Amino acid sequence: MTETTNPSTAALRPDFAAIAEWIKPGSKILDLGCGDGSLLRYLRDTRNVFGYGVEIDDNNLLSCFRNGINVIQNDLEAGLSSFASGSFDYVILSQTLQAMRHTEGIIQEMLRVGKEGIVSFPNFGYWKNRMQVIAGHMPVSETLPYRWYDTPNIHLCTLGDFEALCQQCDARILERKVMNNDYRPVHFLPNLRGMLAFYRFERFA
Amino acid sequence: MQDSRSVGVVAPQYVQIGKPLHLKSGASLDSYHLVYETYGQLNAARSNAVLVCHALSGNHHVAGYYAENEKSIGWWDNLVGPGKPIDTNRFFVIGVNNPGGCHGSTGPASIDPRTGKHYGANFPVVTVEDWVEAQAQLAEHLGIEQFAAIVGGSLGGMQAMQWTLDYPEKVRHALVIAAAPKLTAQNIAFNDVARQAIMTDQEFYGGNFYAHNTLPRRGLRLARMLGHITYLSDDSMAAKFGRSLRKGELSFGFDIEFEIESYLRYQGDKFADMFDANSYLLMTKALDYFDPAAAYDGDLSAAFRVAKANFLVISFTSDWRFSPERSREIVKALLDNEINVSYAEITASHGHDSFLMETPCYHQLVRAYMDNISI
Fold it and tell me: Do B175 and B152 meet the contact criterion of CB atoms below 8 Å apart?
């Protein structure tokens, strides 16, 4: 499958395209922390999905309305009690995990509500981040653009850390993608050379 | 009036409905009339009609003003008008007074053709379902087969929901604002205190006060004062009145001392002069009875299985009478049925009355939602 309807978005947001490649056309999606709704709109336009976004911020909510997507204003930290178990094909958490307080709780909720979960996050183990720490500073980079004192990111992790969490949460990893700073796939030394990580997982039967 | 975003001078219209209205109670109204107003133009495809349903004390006068009184501005004028969130340049908007009301549609103060006297206490109890049926008759009269949207706050939101259950094919979008899928016991309790205030007023005469040429003013006033407290929030009352004193000092008596007392009494008096006590009883009963899940063993998701409309559900953080939790119950039922729904929880301090206020975030969302409705 290639994105024919909206190639410009695919070029601008290779991270969206990476997620879209995993989504079966016509599936039902829940996008947690959906921001302005552009990922969900992209998936609707390219994968013909039906779905809802969940977002807490008023301004993002308005953008979602303007993007014409369904959005539910809700605090993810409070769980997903409005959503029935097993009611979605995919539950997506795109670059939001690292800003969440109840990290384990949200993974559990994703496994409850969705048949599969998709998580993307900036890899803290990326070599540029490591270099900055070695040089004595908290990293600031393309995917971690904040300074230590104004960052919303409270739970940064590496590929290895996330995989350990999945094991702890009884999540079986189905597929992993790692991208470098050119958004190209990284296969060799991913925890060192990868800037962005994507995981698709399901609950252990 | 210079407001270019007002629909300007409006005039009510009347329609006599000859088809009997068979009520949920088993009673019926053989014939009745409805008063309504319209704003904007119905397009050639008849696809741009928006019905605005009123709440407890509202009526058909949603927007604009009457030629004889420039201050007679409609109750949702801040939302409905040219260039406003519900844009009358685009939509044909209808407001209608529900049967049982007291602003022109057949109600307790009307003459019962069977007796030649006021209906009074004999006016049958009406429900949200009955109102939807009456509104459907108006739609037929206006040649509207499907509404682009049906919008309502509070009790009006309940009507918007009921439309999607009774006429799923006739509603494309439902905007359910500051509503609930049913009242809580506390809510019914407030309504009953209001009813008791009216019914125990000596001037009530069992509902036939018209024949005695009087009004149960005292009861209606108390009912409104109580209601008004519950429509505001503690914070908004504190901000507006605090413990301010009328005369700046305590007078150690039982006359008006605190500003809040003055305000509530004024609101009560104003209401008692303009609202019919029997209508108030009927409106509160309609609120109490609304419970679409009741026929499905309390399963609201099962009740919404027939709905086809897209929904916008809005609640307000300080609304404790129709709290966000109640709106989330509606949202959950819609999600369970894979219905298109968006939900906004607006941070607002004015309690239940927030739905009538021009909070920027709230109006921007309604505007964005309405703009996306294709006509």
Answer: yes
> With bands split at pLDDT 50, 70 and 90, how would you rate the model's confidence at B231?
very high
Q: Tell me if chain A has a CB within 8 Å of the CB of B365.
A: yes
* Residue among B124, B105, B181 at smallest CA distance from B333: B181
Phi-psi map region of B122: left, alpha, beta (phi>0 left; psi -120 to 50 alpha)? alpha
Beta strands in chain A (DSSP E): 28-32, 50-55, 70-73, 88-94, 114-122, 171-179, 196-203
Q: Which of B175, B315, B343, B347 to mutate to test the interface with A (most CBs of A within 10 A)?
A: B343
Question: Three-class SS of residue B202?
Answer: helix
Measured between beta carbons, the chain B residues lying within 8 angstroms of A58 are 347, 361
A105-139 confidence digits (pLDDT tens): 999 999 999 999 999 999 999 999 999 999 999 99
| Angstrom distance (rounded) from CA A50 to CA A141 | 34
- Cβ of A62 and B361 within 8 Å? yes
Of B262, B235, B238, B221, which is closest to residue B320 (Cα–Cα)?
B235
Q: For B168-201, give the DSSP string.
A: GGGBSEEEEES--SS--HHHHHHHHHHHHHHHTS
What CA–CA distance (Å, rounded) separates B357 from B314?
13
Give A69-95 pLDDT, tens digit per residue: 999 999 999 999 999 999 999 999 999
Whether B269 contacts B256, CB under 8 Å: no
Cβ-based neighbour number of residue B143 at 10 Å: 9
User: What is the pLDDT, as a whole number, of residue A12?
Assistant: 74
- Which whole number is the average pLDDT over B7-11? 97
CB-based contacts of B324: which residues, under 8 Å, 6+ apart? Answer: B315, B316, B317, B345
Provide the pLDDT confidence category of residue A1 given band limits of 50, 70 and 90.
very low
Whether the CB of B63 is below 8 Å from some CB of chain A: the reply is: no
d(CA A196, CA A158): 10
Of the pLDDT bands very low, low, confident and very high (cuts 50, 70, 90), residue A4 is very low
Q: Which of A61, A73, A83 sits opposite B335 (nearest CB)?
A: A83
- Catalytic positions of B, written as ranges: 154, 319, 352
B305 touches chain A (CB under 8 A): no
Which residues make Cβ contacts (< 8 Å) with residue B224, sequence separation at least 6?
A: B194, B267, B268, B271, B272, B275
Contacts of A87 in chain B (CB under 8 A): 335-336
In chain A, residues with a C-beta closer than 8 Å to the C-beta of B341 are 52, 70, 72
The model's pTM is 0.95
Nearest CA in chain A to B373: A68
pLDDT of residue B358: 96
Band of residue B1 on the pLDDT scale cut at 50, 70, 90: very low
Residue of A nearest to B328 (CA): A82
Counting every residue written for chain A, the total comes to 205
Classify residue A171 by its DSSP letter.
E
CB-nearest partner of A68 from B328, B364, B372? B372
